[in-house]
Amino acid sequence: MASQEIDNIEFEDVACNVCGFFHGDFVFYNHDRLHGFPGKFKINCCSGCGLLYVSPRPKNIGKYYIEEYEPYNLDSQDFYQKFENGLMEVYYNNQKGILAWFKVKLYQALYNPIPAEYKGKKILDVGCGNGLFLYNLKRFGAFDVYGVDISDYAVRQAREKLSLFNVNSGLLEEQSFSDNFFDVITLNHVIEHLPDPKKTLLEVGRILKPKGLLIITTPNAASINLKIFGQYWFALETPRHLNIFSTRSLSKIVEQADTFSIKKIDYNISNYIFARSLIFLFKIKSPFLSDLLMKFKVLLTPFFYLVPKKKRDVMTIYYIKK
C-alpha cells in the first residue's frame, strides 16, 4: 500500500506488560508494511518471559488504524469467509448425517469454535471489528451477542449494516458492564493490539460469570515462521500489534489476574499469515499477483502439517473462570 502521512505522533517507553521489566533485549527495527505509515519501530524481547513488544511505542496508536483496515470492512469477505460461515451454520444447527458430521469435525479442527453447549448464551467479543463474527453467532447459534471496538467506523458498520445494537465503541474498561454478566468472552486476534493487556484481563475476570469461558486467539511468538521471515512475518503487524505472546508469556499474564484456569490449548496453521509474509518478503506490489497468492493460499496448507504444533503461527487458549 502507498505510504500514508501521519501527524503529531508522540512516543513512550514502556515496560514488559507481563513482568514489568523496562530493559528488554533488542530484536530488530520494523516498519508498517501493511499501510505504509512512516517511521521505524523497535521490537524488544523480555528476558523474563519472552514477550515481544514495541517500545518506544506511539501514545496515540489509534491513528494507525484506518477505515480501510481489513477487520473493519464487511466487503473484505472472500471465499474462505463464506466457507467458514457454511461450516458454522452446520455446527450450531445440529444437522444430521455423514456430511454434516464431517463439516462439524472440520469446523472444530480449523476454527476453534465456541463450544455448542454455550449456544444461546450471552457472549461478548472484545475487539469485534465489523461485527460479522457476532452476526453469524446470532444467526446460527441464537447467541445473545455484545461487542466492543475502539473504531467508531467499525462499530457503525456493525450497527447500521448488521443491526447489532449491542456493539459499542471504546475500550472494554469504559463500558461499565455488571459483574458476572457474560457466559463467554472472546478476544480473537485482539490481545496483541492492547496497550495494557493485564488491565483488560482483570476487567474480563470481573464481568465473566463463574465457570464462564474466555477464549483468546493470538499470534504465537514461538512460531517457526517468525524465525524464517523475521521482520517480514505478517503477524508482527507493526506497530498495531504492540505485544506478541508465547504460550509462556500469555500464561504468566493470565495467572496474574488470578481468575482463570486453562481448559485447553490449540495451535493452528495459518496459510493466510504465511501468504501475507511471502508478499512482504518478496515486496510484491502487483495487486494481481497478491490476489492470486491469497486466493490459492490453501494449496500451502499441507506444508504446515509438518510443523510441530507448538511452532505454528496461531494459538488459541480456552480458559474457565474459577
Task: Describe this structure in a few short sentences.
By secondary structure, the chain is of the alpha/beta class.
Number of spatially distinct domains: 1
Number of helices: 10
**pLDDT averaged residue by residue:** 94
CATH architecture: 3-Layer(aba) Sandwich
Q: Tell me, briefly, the overall form.
A: globular
SSE string: EEEEEHHEHEHEEHEHEHEHHHE
Radius of gyration: 19 Å
**Biggest β-sheet: strands ordered side by side in the sheet:** 8-7-6-9-10-13-12
What can you tell me about this protein's structure?
The protein is an alpha/beta fold. The chain has a single domain (66-321), classed as Vaccinia Virus protein VP39 (Rossmann fold, 3-Layer(aba) Sandwich). 32% of the residues lie in helices and 22% in strands. It contains ten helices and 13 strands. It has helices at 79-93, 98-111, 132-141, 152-162, 197-207, 224-229, 247-257, 271-281, 287-295, 301-304, and strands at 11-12, 25-30, 41-45, 52-54, 57-58, 122-126, 144-149, 167-169, 182-188, 208-219, 243-244, 260-268, 314-321. The strands form three sheets. Strands 8-7-6-9-10-13-12 form a seven-stranded mixed sheet, sandwiched between helices. Helix 5 links the parallel strand 9 (182-188) and strand 10 (208-219). Helix 1 crosses helix 2 and helix 5 packs across helix 7. The protein is globular.
